[in-house]
Amino acid sequence: MAIAWTGIVDSIWLEWAHVSEYERWIDEFHRFEDDFRRELPPPLWFSVLRGILAATCYGRPLDPGLGRLEREAETALCGEMPDTERVMLAGQLMFLNTWQFGRRDGAARVMSVMAQRPESIARASPLARCVWQTFSSLWNLLFEADLEASLAEARTGRELILEHGISTWDNAVPPLQAALCFEDRENLDDWMAWFLRADPKANRPFYDTFQAHFMAGQAWLRGDVHEAVGHCRQSLLAAERHGSVVIFSAFRALLAACLAESGQLREALREAARARRIRAGFPSDFLDLMMYLPLARIPLLAGRSRRALPALRRAFEAGARQRMFFPLMVRRDELAMLCGLALQAGITPDYAAWLIRARDLAPPDDPGIRMEWPWRCRIHVLGRFDVEVDGQVNDTRPKARQRMHALLSQLILAGPEGIEQEALAERLWPDSPPERALNSLHVTIHRLRDFLREPALLRTHGGRVALCADRVWVDLWEFERLAALADRLDLPLLRRLVGLYGGAARLEPADDLDLQLRQAALLQAFERLALRVGLELEPVDPERSQGHYRAALSHSPLQDELWAGLLRCDAVLGGLGAVERTWGLLSGQYRESLDMEPPARLKTLYERLLAQLAG
């Protein structure tokens, strides 16, 4: 009976039939469970245990007894059992902790046990080893965000299939999903050809679902969104024949996002609502990440990015709980924007930074997001010169690094476009022959790359040298960029922009005429912005405006309008005494710096304020 029961359950799994097919056999197991446990020899009991774990996982995923079966299977995995059965049981536990519920701890426990038993994997049957390679590939995708490792594990599984003539297709699923997560068209096409080699069958709902899904992914990746919508609909028609809540709700969310991308917003919102209804009550972080991340795309595509926050929070909080990576069919620029929105809103910032690093995302143009972006490298030159790599400040001042300081100065002055190598070498080594100067430049570039600890931060291409603007944040660049957009910035961003200016740029050589002109332009922009912020704050928050004027005057101590603003705030907040003290300070500043009295317009304002306060 146990052999027959196990064979039936395995046949349901192998054919990927409708999950309701498991119901009868789950009941049958519970009817004979005591007999099975008492009478079956261990090898056969392990097969039954794996069968009931699979049947409950697929057929009754919310059954409270599933946890008991999982714990028993984990305990068995650590004990004595046949190699093939051990590997197959490990595969079933990995399915439970990845595709079904997305639980890093559970998957990590299984991976740890099997890492201690490589001989069991090596002695297992080819099919069991192929199953294990499939889930090793999936582990590297979901929990390591490692495309190359995921593909390598999948290729090992493919070699087993070719060598032993195994009839299976599901080993292609992790590398195909990985290709979609990383927008890797070459590997998507490669693994799609492998996936489609499967022999046709009359009833194979899971295969048909994934075939349509991956065809949608191919169309989406090449930019044919309308074709992708058609394949998404086909995947849902096939999904109805197997009844998986995870697949049915997640793939409906993918359809909703593709509809939004194709301009069908109203239909997209209807499909999104259906996906949420189907998903209701199913406790899976994997499903929340897979479903809500595409749903967050919909308001983004509609130009209403702030409305993405509820779905984004649901997806990122699930992903952060498991440190799980699965941005399926989300374009790089969209994922960058979603990560930026999460950083701005304080939604799992560490997880957002991890995604940014995993996908090597470039920051969006949005000024507020760029302020929050976890830049690989930050360089401060306004008022100070320091280089921050991975949150740690590296000093460039020691004598051995003077040339690096000079090189960085020139690259910063050149801007993101960079500078020709010959011109750069001549500037840094004006007294050396051209060939020797170029050799010295190459040595210094090499040392600077070592100092920055990531070669990609410094680009050399087409005879030019440049800092990579997608990875390196320079306060001077950001100040100039945002100052040019100041008319479009709100008050909070303006205040942060003013705060970027810490003083004159500490670049070399300090006596360079171009640098001096640049310094003057920076100071003028700062004064203009600082005055605007002060004027906007005065009527609503004079105390904050007062502090702002004082801070601004520390960088521009002879700016008349800033002194005027400070006098006005003093009159509101501190009365006669405060105004007189400020007048004394500004008078001393003008006498010391210019050997003259303050301008007449400031004296007129001072006298008017005194009269108002005295009256």
Walk me through the structure.
This protein starts with a helix and ends with a helix. Among the domains are: 200-374, Alpha Horseshoe (Serine Threonine Protein Phosphatase 5, Tetratricopeptide repeat); 377-472, Winged helix-like DNA-binding domain superfamily/Winged helix DNA-binding domain (Arc Repressor Mutant, subunit A), CATH 1.10.10; 538-615, Serine Threonine Protein Phosphatase 5, Tetratricopeptide repeat (Alpha Horseshoe). The strands form 2 sheets. It has a 4-stranded mixed sheet. Strands 4-6-5 form a 3-stranded antiparallel sheet. Helices cover 69% and strands 4% of the residues. It is mainly alpha-helical and 615 residues long. It contains 30 helices and 7 strands. InterPro entries: AfsR-DnrI-RedD_regulator (IPR051677), BTAD (IPR005158), Sig_transdc_resp-reg_C-effctor (IPR016032), TPR-like_helical_dom_sf (IPR011990), WH-like_DNA-bd_sf (IPR036388). Keywords: Transcription, Transcription regulation. It comes from Thioalkalivibrio denitrificans.
